[in-house]
Design goal:
Blueprint (H helix, E strand, L loop, with lengths): L5 E11 L4 H10 L3 E12 L9 E3 L1 H13 L6 E4 L6 H13 L5 E4 L4 E2 L2 E2 L5 H11 L4 E2 L3 H8 L10 H12 L5 E7 L5 E8 L4 E8 L8 H14 L4 H21 L14 H7 L10
Parallel strand pairs: 1-2, 1-4, 4-5, 5-8, 8-9
Antiparallel strand pairs: 2-3, 6-7, 9-10, 10-11
Helix pairs in contact: 1-7, 2-3, 3-4, 4-5, 7-8
GO biological process, one term: pyridoxal 5'-phosphate salvage
Keywords: ATP-binding, Kinase, Nucleotide-binding, Transferase
Protein name: pyridoxal kinase
Length: about 290
């Protein structure tokens, strides 16, 4: 058996609502990885579609957790950050990256902070600017179109964009420091939705699409990012990894749509995990007995 890779997932945790750590941990684990977590905040529910949610900032816990990991000599094959709970956490997570980064460590930053042209309610423009500095330390970043606009300090264009705009945006995002960029929520045809990827080392831009399912589904960005990382760490090239992430996210949305589940609770990713395991080539029938 190959050595099991270890990941540190640095996200918030919503006690109800399938997003952030409640999505990242099971997906990365199902993909075969020893996944540790560092919660950045604890919420009673996620912030989309719910009112009156509780919010506890865990900024003060980040450094002690990092220090303890360091004292144990723990090493990570990947560091994966998402939603951060405060402006101060940007520097703390940047320091954690510096502490645990090795030549073999992949750093992926999902700059979770905005969607549909607006920042999330607990974010500020100051945090958006700071997030660009964190992205500079990443090997790969995974923003959506709204987050890309904030990272680049540009106006959000909505759905009025061209293929040339997407490819220009990818290259400008890469200039922040990451060698690879995957831009989610991209559509170049009315009935298709997916992602665009750019590898600055090869200069190649690639696209991954699947059928569009109408509606807004919470947590799909976290499903997409966690699946993308799963594929990359299972040694798929960027173009194939992006397609796997698009296809699995589409399958999760489809199952949710078919079951007529309440969308604000997130997508039904659990029932699609066998599909992901098969897509990643991890189905070992000898383990089935």
């Amino acid at each position: 058996m190959d050595r099991q890779k270890r990941i540190a997932a640095i996200h918030d945790i919503s006690c109800v609502g399938r997003c952030s750590l409640t999505v990242a941990l099971p997906i990365l684990s199902a993909a075969g990885f020893d996944t540790g977590v560092l919660p950045t905040a604890v919420l009673s529910t996620h912030t989309g579609g719910f009112e009156g949610f509780t919010y506890r900032d865990l900024t003060e816990d980040i450094k002690p957790i990092s220090d303890h990991w360091q004292s144990l000599g723990i090493k990570f094959d990947a560091l994966y950050s998402g939603f951060l709970g405060s402006f101060e956490q940007i520097d703390l997570v940047a320091d954690l990256f510096d502490t645990f980064k090795s030549p073999e460590t992949m750093i992926m930053v999902d700059p979770v902070m905005a969607d549909n042209g607006v920042l999330y309610s607990v974010y500020s423009p100051e945090m958006a600017k700071g997030m660009a500095k964190l992205c500079a330390k990443a090997d790969i970043i995974v923003p959506n179109l709204t987050e890309a606009a904030f990272l680049l300090d540009e106006d959000y264009v909505g759905e009025n964009y061209s293929q040339e705009y997407i490819e220009s945006t990818l290259k400008k995002l890469s200039s922040l420091g990451a060698k690879k960029v995957v831009l989610s929520g991209v559509s170049l045809e009315k009935d298709k939705l997916g992602a665009a990827a750019f590898d600055s080392e090869s200069g190649k831009v690639s696209y991954a699409f699947n059928d569009r399912i109408e509606g807004y589904f919470h947590g799909t960005g976290d499903v997409f990012g966690s699946t993308l990382l799963s594929a990359l760490l299972n040694n798929f090239p960027l173009e194939e990894a992006a397609q796997i992430a698009v296809d699995y996210t589409h399958r999760c949305i489809l199952l949710t749509h078919q079951a007529e589940l309440e969308k604000r609770y997130g997508v039904c990713f659990e029932r699609a995990l066998p599909y992901l395991i098969k897509k990643l080539g991890l189905l070992d029938e000898s383990l089935l007995g």
